[in-house]
Amino acid sequence: MTQNTNSWTENDNKLSKTFTFGDFKSALIFVNKVGEIAENLGHHPEIWFTWGKVTIACSTHDDGNIITDKDRELTQKIDLI
Amino acid sequence: MTQNTNSWTENDNKLSKTFTFGDFKSALIFVNKVGEIAENLGHHPEIWFTWGKVTIACSTHDDGNIITDKDRELTQKIDLI
Questions:
Q1: Bridge partners (DSSP) listed for residue B17
Q2: Residues 33-52, chain A, touching B (beta carbon < 8 A)
Q3: Looking at the complex, does the CB of residue B65 fall below 8 Å from at least one CB of chain A?
Q4: pLDDT tens figures, B3-15
Q5: Which of B31, B53, B14 is nearest to A46 (CA)?
Q6: Nearest in space to A38 (alpha carbons), one of A2, A70, A80, A6
Q7: Which chain B residues contact residue A28 at CB under 8 A?
């Protein structure tokens, strides 16, 4: 489970949020769940991760790298993981 | 399979390399293989990825964020994926 309940931050035309974990494996499991959601939506974020930390950034490249409803839907589903 | 055969770049005390893929799922499978190697070695890189692209960066935090033999071993095993 994630240990970070902060909201998403809008910056540089992206919605981003960092989630923290107690080990690498938990972070990787989370990344896979995000990946499954992204594949189901046909909308893929940027994912940066390392030991115990995952940062997700969402923007819509097809619409000129802006934040759209697709990104808001993706962030809402990620928050339900 | 990766489509990038470039060597690792040493920059900012990290060894980094970008691998490209034909879709998101292939990139995610690669990330999981990197994760398995990292867990087996007990040495974890930074992983940045999005649709079709994965960038790996390796440095040794325990030794003051420098490149060590642990990083070279990790990069060699990643190249064998």
A1: B56
A2: 35, 38-39, 44-51
A3: no
A4: 455 799 999 899 9
A5: B53
A6: A70
A7: 31-32, 35
Contact B56, A49 (CB under 8 A): no
Quickly count helices (H) and strands (E) in chain A.
2, 4
Q: Read off the pTM.
A: 0.90
pLDDT digits (tens, 9 = 90+) for B52-74: 999 999 999 887 889 999 999 99
Q: How far is CA A22 from CA A26, A28, B17, B28, B70, in A?
A: 7, 11, 27, 21, 22
The pair of three-digit structure tokens given for residue B54, joined into one six-digit string? 């994965």
Percent of chain A with pLDDT over 70: 94
Phi-psi region of A64 (alpha: psi -120 to 50; beta: other; left: phi over 0): left
